[in-house]
Amino acid sequence: MENHFATCRCPCGQDLQQLGAVDHLLVCPEWKNSSLLYGYAIEQSRSPAGRSMLIYECEALLRLASPKPEIEEEFKVPAKKLPQMQKQPSYDKYVREEEVVSCELCHRKQPDMTNMFFPECCHMMCKSHAIDAIRSQYPIQNYAKCPMDCGYTFSVEEIIDLIGADEFEKLKEKSFQEFISQTGGIVVNCDCGVMSILEPGVPDYAYKDEQGQPISRRAAENMAQFRFRCGNCHKIFCASCKADPYHLGKTCQEHQDFKVAKHCRYCGKVIQSVRPVCSEAACLELYENSCKKILPCGHQCFGTNGETECFPCLEEECAQGGPTIYDYCAICYIDGLGAAPCVKLICGHLLHYHCLNTYLEKRWVGPRITFNFAKCPNCKEWAQVPDNPALTQKMDKILELYDDIRQKGLKRLKFEGMENDPRLNDPNDHYYQKPDIYALDRFAYYECFKCKQPYFGGKKECEENRDRAGYNPQELVCPGCSAICMDGADCKTHGKEFIEFKCKFCCGISAWFCWGTTHFCDPCHTKQNNGDYVSQKKKEDLPQCPGPDLCPLKVRHPPNGEEFSLGCAICRNLASNSREF
User: What is the DSSP letter of 116?
Assistant: First the structure.
């Protein structure tokens, strides 16, 4: 056979011979950097289709450049020269030998790549070997490996390229059926379009339902066998009866019976009575406070007794994209709206009546007055319920308190010289032209335990609220009421509102009046409650006043450690600064 390999020179300067040329090129950086074919080949070989195309292109280029006769004539290799060809080095097994490719599995030679397969593991083989491996392996193990035992798993794209999409779907179905026969699983088709196999789990007989009650053994076994969570859309439903969401605590048959039976509208128990609730005391109380009107759709209203106007039906078939009985109450986040009578806020959101009523009765958390409890959890608008007279009455009192503190805050803002703060005049600022909100975010107000009126307790940082669940409300006494205990006098001009006491232990304004004798500012009161007993410290161990010019109070007062009334803050301010108020 004529040798077609001529001596040539590598870009690095080394002469290349047929033996060893490929080994040299594989490690030569000069060739990789200068060869146009190298970069193109690397890019093309990233996919199976690209590798096949690369082989076809190389074969076509060699044929175009070769003056040799037709390939059929070259392929007729004399038998006596076959051993000499088989002695070619291993690096040349992927390279066309006299324009011939060889299968690594059966060593059969082919004139081109038409019947050959070159997977990503880089083993050249006949297509028939790969197809046989796929057809024998995939139905059993849901994948197919290279028959050269290299451990490579054929990709889905490679499999479809070999056997076609239709046969691949049939193999997948066989794989599913094989798995089902071995494990007892079932094929589940989710509405999102994904097909999965559900393998039965181990029953959890200690599992509890949404009410915290243990489910029955039959329900636990049903759940272990049919409760399915889609890995694509994460929906949880029953793979047997398709109930969505899954019927926790019931078997499929019990769920079907439950759907057609009459049941309590609040706890869900099956009932036989005429009224739509069971005999449980909690459900009877909820029903007593519910609206008994029947809506035009035929369903009973989910509102409260005595409401002036009913809101739209919450049943799923009537909701039309609005809230339903299964949407959670935004206060408790435990039960759906259908689990208790609801009210519709002026903003349009729905809440359980008893949840909102409890919020309004408990009011703010901690000693400092805040108003988040009286706002909608969803949109932060005032939780006004125009259709419920009882809640409207409670909200009116809360809004009166808010307006009182708002007016006090605006006066305090002017008194503190903060009415012209740059933030109030900056169009890009959150407080632009909102002096009332700015004042309420800067000043702390407390409710006096004695007179029940709000009083100023000092400045506060926006992000800091020293709320304490275990505080003693009896220690919250306004300066006016504490002045009576300590022989303080009202201001003849401004009354009790601006009477102030300094903190006994520092140069701050008091917010707490404890033991009927002692005034604390909020920071010192916090220290006292946390075990840093400022009341037990000697005067010399307390913070020392820097003098009236540098003192935050701007007055001359006794050393810290002694009680001192600051009198009327407005009068004191007028006297020291002659500020018009």
Answer: E
Instruction: Name 200's bridge partners.
Output: none
The rounded distance, in Å, linking the Cα atoms of 419 and 408 is 13
CA distance 440 to 551: 25
127 occurs within a structural domain: no
pTM for the model stands at 0.53
- Mean pLDDT (the chain, rounded): 83
Size of the chain, expressed as the number of residues it contains:
581
CB atoms inside a 10 Å sphere around CB 557: 15
Angstrom distances, CA of residue 376 to CA of 100, 302, 307, 352, 381: 79, 19, 19, 12, 5
Cis bond leading into 245, ω under 30°? yes
Q: Which of 478, 514, 521, 545 is the catalytic position?
A: 514
How far is the first Cα of the chain from the last one, in angstroms, to the nearest whole number?
Answer: 115
Is there a domain that residue 46 lies in? yes
512 vs 520: CA distance, rounded Å: 5
Q: What are phi and psi of 76, to 5 degrees?
A: -80, 85
Active-site annotation holds for 491: no
The two beta strands, 350-352 and 342-344, are antiparallel
Classify residue 450 as left (phi > 0), alpha (psi -120 to 50) or beta: alpha
Give the end of a domain, one of 86, 121, 156: 121
What's the domain count of the chain? 2
pLDDT digits (tens, 9 = 90+) for 172-225: 888 877 777 776 778 788 888 887 878 888 999 999 988 788 999 999 999 999
CA distance 461 to 368: 13
Per residue in 423-469, pLDDT (tens digit) is 999 999 999 999 999 998 888 898 988 889 998 877 775 334 444 55
- Asked if 524 is an active-site residue, the reply is no
Dig out the tokens for 579 from the structure: 């500020």
> Which residue range is the domain that position 458 belongs to?
406-577
